[in-house]
Specification:
Structural class of chain A: alpha+beta
CATH topology of the largest domain in chain B: Aldehyde Oxidoreductase, domain 4
Number of domains of chain B: 4
Helix content of chain B: 25-40%
Strand order of the largest sheet of chain B: 3-5-1-12-9-10-11
Oligomer: heterodimer
Number of domains of chain A: 3
Low-confidence stretches of chain B: none
Helix content of chain A: 25-40%
Mean pLDDT of chain A: 95
Shape of chain B: globular
Number of strands of chain A: 13
Distance between the termini of chain B: 70 Å
CATH class of the largest domain in chain B: Alpha Beta
Structural class of chain B: alpha+beta
Order of helices and strands of chain A: EHEHEEEHHHHHHEEEEEEEEHHH
Chain lengths: ~300, ~750
C-alpha cells in the first residue's frame, strides 16, 4: 500500500556501536523515532501495510545495522560458569544454520533456523530482529526462551543484561528501554549431546508463520531432569516459557510424569486464541501433544 | 522434414522469461505524461452510500477524480447488465469500486486515496448462499436466484415439476441408497502477476495494453462502455503472468476504470493492482454446497443419481451462469446412471462476484460425486477404485444429458495405468501403515472433463483464426488466443509447422492486438489447443496448399513459390470454426452432446497424516490422463502437474477467511498455497486416444481437467490413513481434529 513513500526515507549507517547508541539516544530525547534495520523481513512488510505518511511530516530515519561488526559476534566464550555461546544481534538464521559451533554445541538453534521462513528470509532475518519485533509467533525467540538466554543491550547509560525471563512484559512489549540497542544474546551451553526438541506446526513446509512451535532443551541424570528449558510460539501474548511444565519436569523422576499431568500443566501455561492462521482449540491440542512427545522423548510415561 | 507435433520443443517464450527480459505490463516504460490510477473501495459489505468527502488538507488540483456520475452507461457489459462500473448509491460487496483517482505522483496518490471518506449506512449483509435464496434482493429488482439448470434422465425425465418426486421414487426402488453433503470454499487463482493495465486515448480511439486472458472481452466492454465503433477500440495483450480464469472477465472492469481516468485526465493512465487488492477485489472460485443421493444395486451397479448444487455467485452475475452450467454437466462424474436428476442453482450474496477459475464449476461437483462414491464403497464394503471401474463410462454409454460416447473414451485405461503405477492395490491391501505417530494412506479419483465450450457454444461463437504467408517462406499465425503461460505460442507453432510441412522456426505468432488479429473466442474452457488449434491447422493447410499449387505450376522452393504469390497480392487464410455435425445440443432441455469430447483421468494420492497434529503431507502422486494427442508432451505434463498442485492447495490449505463479508487473509503470507517444498513427486502418464476432430492428430483440451481430481484423491487417502471421512474443503488439520473428536464420540 505504502511502499510508494519508502524512497523518501533516509537510510544511514552508523560508524560504530558507540555512535549508534548516541544517535538513538539523541533522537529519542527529541521525541524522534529511529528504525534499526537488520534483515528488514518484518519491517518492510509493515511498511507495505501501513497507511501512507502524511506529507510534511519528518520521515523516519532508518539505520542499517546489518553489517555492524559489534553486532556480528558468533563465538563460544569460556568462563567460570561454563561455556557460553554469544550470538550477535545481526547474526542471520542462515549463519546459525551453517555455523559448525552452533551445530555442535547448540543444535536447537541450527534446527530452528532451518524452519524460519524460507532460504531467502533466513539469509536476511536476524536473531536480534526477531527479538526486537517481539512477535509471540517468533520461532527464534521460542528457542531463546528454551535456552534461557541472556539479552545484552547497550545505551548511553552503558551495557546491561536482561535475563530472558525478565524480558517480555506483554504483546510486543518488553523491559528494554526505547533507546537501548540489542547487541547480542548469550546462552549457557547445554552439555554436549544434551537432548533437545524443535517442532514447528505450520500450514506449509516453508514461508509459514507458526500455528504452534515448541523449542526444548534438557539435561537428564539418573532418570531426573537437571536442566529443562522450553519455549513455545503462538500460544500466548508473549513467547510462552511454560513455568508449570518446567516445574513439573524438574519435580520428580521423569518416569513418574504421566500424560494427564503434562496436559494439565500445559493448560495452565498457555492461552491461545482464534486468529486467521488457526484456532484456540487446535493450538491447545497441539501444545499438549508436542509437550507430551517431548517429555516422552526424555523418558516420561504415555 | 522432422515433425514438430509430439516433440517437446522448448517454449519460444521461455528464454525471455527465464532471463527476466520479458516485458509484463508494469515493465512497460512510462508514456509521456502518464498518471497512476487507484481505486477507492467500499470496505462495507452492504449499505447505502450517502456521500463521499475529500479531505481539504490534500491539494486535489493535480488529482483526476472519476465517480459514478462520470460514467454513462454505468454498467459492465457481460451476460447480465447488473454490475456498475462504479457504485452510485448502493454498496453490494466490500470491495465495490466507488471512486477512481489518478495522479502523476504515486506517493501523493496513496495519500489522496486515504483522504477519501465514503459515508455508508451499513445494512446487514447476505452472506450465506442458501439463505440468500429466500432473502431480500442483493441487487434491487432482481432475484437472488441468478440461474437455475435442471438435467434429467430416465425416470426423472418427466418434466421439471414431477422430476423431484420421480427421482425419489427411483431411489426408493434401489437396494442401497446413500446420501451426503459435500461443500467447497472460495479459491483464489493467485497467478504470479497481479492484474494491471494501461489505457490511453488518441485520434484513433482508446488503446489499452495489459495482463489479459481474453482481449475481445475487454474490447466488447470498452465498445459498449464508451459507445464506440469496434474499430476505435484497440486492446493489446502484454506478456501475461498467469490467469487460470482470473483474467477472463475482470480485466474488463479494470480497462473501463483506466480508460475513464485516461479520458477525464487526457493522459495515459497505468493501473496496477498490488497483491492485496487483487486478492480482495478480483473474482474467485465459486463456493458450492452439493447434496447428493444415490441408489445402486448390492453388487455395486450404480442406478440413480440425485444432486442439488447451490453455488455462491457473489453480488453480480458476471460469468456465474456458465460456471454453474459446467458444474451441473460434470455432476454425474465419469459414471453410468440409469436415472439422474441434477438441479443447479446460483445465489447472489454480498460478496465480491465469483468467476472463472480453472475447472469452471466442475471441480466443485466432481469433489461431491467422488467423495460420495467413496461413501458408497464404504457402505458396500467395496474397494473404491473397483466400484469406479465397474461403473465407468465407456464407448456406447450415454451420459446424464443423453450424450452417446462414440470415440476417444479412455477412462478405464487411465484408471488401470494409475492404479498399476502407484501400487494402489498392494497399498490398499496392506491397510493404513502407521510409523510412530504418522499414518500413511492412499486414495483415488476418476473423472472426465469436457473440452471446448458447452453445448452449442462453439457453434454460436464462430471462432476465427488466420495464417498469413510472409516473405521468405514464413508463416504468421494471427489469433486472439493468448499465451498466458500455458504454452499456446509454442504449441500453435508446432501444429502450423506440421500442417504446412515447415520447420517450427519458420512460423511466427502475431502479437495479440484486437486491431490485427481475429476473434478466436476467449482463451478459456480447455478450448485453445483443441478448437482454435484446429482452425489454425486448417488455415495453415490452406496456405500450404496454395504454395504447393504454385510450386507445381512454376517450381522453386516453398520460399520462392511463396514470394511469387506474395508479389501478386496478400496471401492469407482466415478460417472460422465449424462444429462437427454430430454435435447436437438442446439448450431448452439441457439434453444432447454437452461437449464435443471429454478428456479422462485418474489421480491417485498417497499421504502421511501426523496423528498428533493432523498435518497432511502428500508423499506420492500418480496420474494417467487421456489427452487425445500430446502435441508437446513436456508442456502437456506441465499442465497436468501444475493443475494437480493447484488442486492440492485447494484440498489442503487454501481458504479465504471472511468476517462480515471482508477478507481477513488477503496476503501471500496467510492465504496459503503450496510452495515447491510442498509439491510431491508426481508420476504423470499420458494416454493418447485420439479425438478425430482434434489438431495434430487428435489433441483434446486438458487445461482445466487436472484441477478436478486432486482434492477427492487426497480426501480418500486421508480417509484410508485415518478413518476420518471429510466432506468439506479444505482438509485442514483443524477440521481433521474436529472430525477425530466426532469419531471418538
Amino acid at each position: 500500500m505504502s511502499l510508494t513513500d519508502l524512497e523518501s526515507y533516509e537510510l544511514l549507517h552508523a560508524p560504530s556501536l558507540a555512535a549508534l547508541v548516541a544517535l538513538v539516544a539523541d533522537r529519542h530525547a527529541s521525541g524522534l523515532h529511529t528504525v534499526l534495520l537488520a534483515g528488514g523481513t518484518d519491517w518492510l512488510v509493515e511498511q507495505e501495510s501501513r497507511p501512507p505518511l502524511p506529507s510534511g511530516v519528518e520521515h523516519p530515519v532508518v539505520l542499517d545495522v546489518s553489517r555492524m561488526p559489534e553486532l556480528r559476534a558468533l563465538e563460544v566464550v569460556s568462563g567460570e560458569g561454563g561455556d557460553r555461546l554469544r550470538v550477535g544481534a545481526a547474526v542471520t538464521y542462515l549463519e546459525l544454520r551453517r555455523s559448525a559451533v552452533v551445530g555442535e554445541r547448540a543444535p536447537l538453534l541450527a534446527r530452528m533456523a532451518a524452519d524460519v521462513g524460507a532460504l531467502q528470509i533466513q539469509a536476511r532475518g536476524t536473531i536480534g530482529g526477531n527479538l526486537a519485533t517481539a512477535s509471540p509467533a517468533a520461532d527464534g525467540v521460542a528457542a531463546l526462551a528454551a535456552l534461557d538466554a541472556d539479552v545484552l543491550v547497550e545505551s548511553v547509560r552503558g551495557r546491561r543484561t536482561i535475563p530472558f525471563s525478565a524480558l517480555q512484559t506483554g504483546y510486543k512489549t518488553s523491559t528494554r528501554a526505547p533507546d537501548e540497542v540489542l547487541v547480542a544474546v548469550e546462552i549457557a551451553l547445554p552439555s554436549r549431546g544434551a537432548p533437545f526438541v524443535w517442532r514447528k506446526v505450520a500450514a506449509r513446509r516453508a514461508q509459514a508463520i507458526s500455528k504452534v512451535a515448541l523449542a526444548g532443551v534438557a539435561e537428564v541424570e539418573d532418570g531426573r531432569v537437571t536442566r529443562f528449558g522450553v519455549g513455545m510460539a503462538s500460544v500466548a501474548p508473549v513467547t510462552a516459557r511454560l513455568p508449570t511444565v518446567r516445574a513439573l519436569a524438574l519435580s520428580r523422576p521423569i518416569a513418574e510424569i504421566d500424560a494427564a499431568s503434562v496436559d494439565r500443566a500445559v493448560e495452565a501455561d498457555v492461552s491461545p486464541i482464534d486468529d486467521v492462521r488457526s484456532t484456540r482449540d487446535y493450538r491447545l491440542h497441539c501444545a499438549k501433544a508436542l509437550v507430551r512427545a517431548w517429555l516422552r522423548q526424555l523418558g516420561a510415561r504415555g | 522434414m522432422q515433425p514438430s507435433v509430439g516433440v517437446s520443443v522448448p517454449r519460444v517464450d521461455g528464454a525471455a522469461k527465464v532471463a527476466g527480459t520479458a516485458l509484463y505490463v508494469d515493465d512497460l516504460p512510462p508514456l509521456p505524461g502518464e498518471l497512476h490510477g487507484v481505486t477507492v473501495r467500499s470496505r462495507v459489505a452492504r449499505g447505502r452510500l450517502r456521500g463521499v468527502t475529500f479531505d481539504p488538507a490534500i491539494d486535489w488540483s493535480d488529482v483526476t477524480i472519476v465517480r459514478a456520475e462520470d460514467v454513462t452507461p454505468n454498467v459492465v457489459a457481460l451476460i447480465v447488465d447488473d454490475q456498475p462500473v462504479l457504485a452510485a448509491d448502493v454498496i453490494r460487496h466490500a470491495y465495490e469500486p466507488v471512486v477512481l483517482l489518478a495522479c502523476a505522483d504515486r506517493a501523493k496518490l496513496a495519500r489522496a486515496a486515504a483522504a477519501v471518506t465514503l459515508e455508508v449506512d451499513p445494512l446487514p449483509p447476505i452472506l450465506d448462499p442458501e439463505a440468500a435464496l429466500s432473502a431480500d434482493a442483493v441487487v434491487e429488482g432482481r432475484s437472488n436466484l441468478q440461474k437455475r439448470y435442471l438435467i434429467t434422465k430416465g425416470a426423472a425425465d418427466v418434466g421439471d415439476e414431477a422430476s423431484l418426486a420421480a427421482i425419489e421414487a427411483a431411489l426408493a426402488g434401489c437396494e442401497v441408497v446413500v446420501r451426503g453433503r459435500y461443500t467447497t470454499t472460495h479459491q483464489e487463482q493467485l497467478y504470479l502477476e497481479p492484474q494491471g493495465l494501461i489505457a490511453r486515448w488518441d485520434d484513433h480511439g482508446v488503446h489499452v495494453v495489459g495482463s489479459i486472458q481474453c482481449p475481445y472481452y475487454v474490447h466488447k466492454a470498452l465498445t459498449k462502455g464508451f459507445d464506440l465503433p469496434a474499430d476505435r477500440v484497440h486492446v493489446t495483450q502484454a506478456v501475461t503472468g498467469g490467469g487460470f480464469g482470473g483474467k477472463e472477465e475482470y480485466p474488463s472492469v479494470l480497462a473501463l476504470h483506466a480508460a475513464l481516468l485516461a479520458r477525464k485526465s487526457g493522459r495515459p493512465v497505468r493501473m496496477i493492482y498490488d497483491r492485496k487488492e487483487d486478492l480482495e477485489a478480483t473474482t474467485k472460485r465459486h463456493p458450492a454446497i452439493c447434496d447428493v443421493a444415490t441408489g445402486c444395486d448390492r453388487d455395486g451397479t450404480l442406478r440413480v443419481l440425485a444432486m442439488r448444487v447451490v453455488m455462491d455467485g457473489g453480488a453480480y452475475v458476471t460469468l456465474t451462469p456458465v460456471v454453474l452450467s459446467r458444474g451441473a454437466l460434470h455432476a454425474a462424474g465419469a459414471y453410468r446412471w440409469r436415472d439422474a436428476r441434477i438441479e443447479a442453482l446460483a445465489a447472489a450474496t454480498n460478496t465480491p462476484p465469483n468467476g472463472a477459475f480453472r475447472g469452471f464449476g466442475a471441480p466443485q461437483t466432481i469433489w461431491a460425486i467422488e467423495r460420495h462414491l467413496d461413501a458408497v464403497a464404504r457402505e458396500l464394503g467395496r474397494d473404491p477404485l473397483d466400484l469406479r471401474r465397474q461403473n465407468l463410462l465407456t464407448i456406447g454409454d450415454t451420459t446424464a444429458t443423453g450424450q452417446k460416447l462414440a470415440f476417444s473414451v479412455a477412462g478405464l485405461e487411465c484408471l488401470d495405468k494409475a492404479r498399476a503405477d502407484s501400487g494402489y492395490d498392494e497399498k490398499r491391501r496392506r491397510g493404513p501403515v502407521a510409523t510412530g505417530r504418522v499414518a500413511r494412506g492412499i486414495g483415488a479419483a476418476t473423472f472426465l472433463h469436457g473440452a471446448g465450450f458447452t453445448g452449442s457454444g462453439e457453434r454460436n461463437l464462430k471462432g476465427k483464426a488466420a495464417v498469413d504467408l510472409v516473405a521468405g517462406g514464413r508463416l504468421l499465425i494471427r489469433t486472439g488466443s493468448t499465451d498466458i503461460g500455458q504454452g499456446t505460442e509454442t504449441v500453435f507453432r508446432q501444429i502450423v509447422a506440421d500442417a504446412a510441412g515447415l520447420p517450427i522456426g519458420a512460423v511466427d505468432y502475431a502479437p495479440v492486438c484486437t486491431t490485427h488479429v481475429p476473434d478466436s473466442g476467449p482463451t478459456v474452457a480447455s478450448r485453445t489447443i483443441m478448437i482454435v488449434g484446429s482452425i489454425v491447422e486448417s488455415a495453415a493447410r490452406k496456405v500450404a496448399a496454395r504454395v504447393a499449387a504454385e510450386r507445381d505450376r512454376a517450381g522453386g522452393t516453398f520460399a520462392e513459390a511463396g514470394d511469387r504469390l506474395i508479389a501478386a497480392g496478400e496471401v492469407t487464410e482466415l478460417v472460422q470454426y465449424v462444429s462437427p455435425d454430430y454435435v447436437k445440443w438442446d439448450d431448452a432441455t439441457y439434453k444432447g452432446d454437452a461437449y464435443p469430447v471429454f478428456a479422462w483421468s485418474c489421480f491417485i494420492a498417497e499421504v502421511d497424516v501426523d496423528l498428533d497434529t493432523f498435518e497432511t503431507t502428500v508423499v506420492g502422486f500418480w496420474s494417467a490422463t487421456d489427452v487425445g494427442r500430446a502435441v508437446n508432451p513436456v508442456l502437456c505434463v506441465g499442465q497436468i502437474e501444475g493443475g494437480a498442485l493447484q488442486a492440492l492447495g485447494w484440498a489442503l490449505t487454501e481458504e479465504i477467511v471472511w468476517k462480515d463479508g471482508l477478507i481477513q487473509n488477503p496476503r501471500l503470507t496467510n492465504y496459503i498455497i503450496p510452495t515447491a517444498l510442498d509439491a510431491p513427486h508426481m508420476t504423470t502418464a499420458l494416454i493418447e486416444e485420439p479425438f478425430p476432430f482434434g489438431p495434430g492428430g487428435g489433441a483434446k483440451g486438458i487445461g482445466e481437467l487436472p484441477m478436478d481430481g486432486g482434492a477427492p484423491a487426497v480426501a480418500a487417502a486421508i480417509e484410508h490413513a485415518t478413518g476420518l471421512s471429510l466432506g468439506a474443503l479444505p482438509l485442514s488439520p483443524e477440521r481433521l481434529l474436529a472430525a477425530s473428536r466426532r469419531n471418538a464420540l
